[in-house]
Amino acid sequence: MDTNEFFAPARTTSDEGGSRSENAPDTETHDGAAATEAGVAKVPDVLDVSSVSGDETTATPSGKSPVSKAPRTPVWVDLLSPSNDEIHEIEKRFGIEVPTREEMQEIELSSRLYDEDGALFMTVSVLNRAASDAPQTAVVTFILVKKTLITLRYADPVPFKTFIRRVNRSPSLASSADAVLFGLLEQIVDRLADVMEQTATDLEGLSNQVFASPEDRKSDQGHQDTLRQIGRAGNLSGKAKDSLLNLHRLGLFLSTQTRLKKDAKARLKIISRDIVSITEHANFIANKVTFLLDATLGMISLEQNNIIKIFSVAAAAFLPPTLIASIYGMNFEVMPELDWQFGYPVAIGLMVLSAVLPLWYFKRKGWL
Fold first, then answer.
1. Count of CB atoms situated within 10 Å of the CB of 1
2. Within 13 Å of residue 352, how many CA atoms lie on the same side as its CB?
3. Residues 160, 128: Cα–Cα separation, whole Å
4. Which residues, listed in sequence order, are joined to residue 52 by a DSSP beta bridge?
5. Which of 14, 170, 186, 324 makes a 20 to 30 Å CA pair with 270?
6. Percentage of the chain surpassing pLDDT 70?
7. CB of 165 closer than 8 Å to CB of 140
8. DSSP 44-102
9. HEC profile for 116-140?
10. Which residues neighbour 300 within 8 Å (Cβ) at sequence distance 6 or greater?
11. Is the pLDDT of residue 239 over 50?
């Protein structure tokens, strides 16, 4: 399991009793290991930075005993595929009951969004592996307990990777649990917007293929590839809409919480507007997928009809010659022209003429 704990900027006590804020949060890779403090504020004397497990030791001037403080609370604990023992440790540490993987898969609204003893549990579906041929939706649970955000997930979607890199570059993004929550939601929404834009671009190229001129049309294999790409785009847009629906429900749930501050509610409104606009774009893409699918199947049907028409015209054109040949193939003793010197050439000429005249007529009518 990979468990990352991001700490809010710590404060260091100076000799005069003042305090200064650190410029960077502490980051811990938690496997029962210790937290490593980073970015300690500068004070006149040289400081000792200690690594501890559990309790925090405040950095003090060199030569003096460290001052023990209460355990520091991280603003974000990211649980990636945790074991049962690690989940029990988190439950004991924060006094909550972490939902199981089976409970995370429940589709009931009451099982995904609820408040339990002051801790908010929010489970959403996040689009994963969008660039592959088999896109998926990964279930992620956000647990907002006091001043800490706990994320429980069994997949590693792109938004989480991106946000972790951004936090490492700009520690102020993880200044509070609410900031981390809304930062993750914004990253997920931005990822969905990028996926929808790329899908729209791909569908535009497919549209050009479907409605290309007859000379540029592809073979049956090309139509199969087009149908496969249209199906993938439809599958991707459907999973994106499912993720957007979950995010919309989460936004409505958060909007009813009085614990959110004014700036957090303002960010939530912006995220909700973005979700609505991306959902409309996803609906447009879904309609375009349906249109292109119908158009592609229509083009395939037209080509099949053209092939059947050619065979029908050929059968009609060669019916008179076949009739003439059948008549002269009869084995009767008394038949006209059997003893005629020019009977055979005349019969051949009649068959050729009876085949050319229908072809000429069909061509004139535009059937060929």
1. 12
2. 6
3. 11
4. 35
5. 170
6. 76
7. no
8. SS-B---EESSS-EE--BTTSPPEE-PPPPEEEEEEES--HHHHHHHHHHHT--PPPHH
9. ECCEEEEEEEEEECCCCCCCEEEEE
10. 220, 223
11. yes
Non-local (6+) Cβ contacts of 366 within 8 A are none
- Between 80 and 224, the more confident residue is 80
Task: Read off the pLDDT band of 220 (50, 70, 90).
Answer: low
Place of tokens 């951004």: 166
Backbone angles phi, psi at 79, to 5 degrees: -100, 115
DSSP label at residue 24: S
Contact between 320 and 355 under an 8 Å Cβ cutoff? The reply is: yes
Alpha helices, DSSP H only, in the chain?
Answer: 84-94, 101-104, 109-112, 158-169, 177-210, 220-255, 262-317, 319-328, 343-365
Q: What is the pLDDT of residues 276-332, one digit of tens each?
A: 999 999 999 999 999 999 999 988 888 888 888 888 877 887 788 887 788 777 766
pTM more than 0.90: no
Q: Tens digits of per-residue pLDDT, 63-108?
A: 444 444 556 788 999 999 999 999 999 999 999 999 999 999 988 8
Secondary structure of residue 339 in the 3-state scheme = coil
Burial of 8 (0-12, 13-18, 19+ CB in 10 A): buried
What's the one-letter identity of residue 198?
A: Q
d(CA 255, CA 259): 10
User: Which residues lie closer than 8 Å to 147 by C-beta, 6 or more apart?
Assistant: 8, 73, 75, 176, 177
Name the residue among 200, 286, 202, 206 with its Cα closest to residue 242: 286
Whole-number Å distance between alpha carbons of 125 and 181: 15
Structure tokens, 227: 């149908």
Tokens of 93: 């540490």
| Pair of tokens at residue 299 | 């083009």
The DSSP bridge pattern shows strands 74-80 and 148-153 to be parallel
Residue for token digits 């059948």?
326
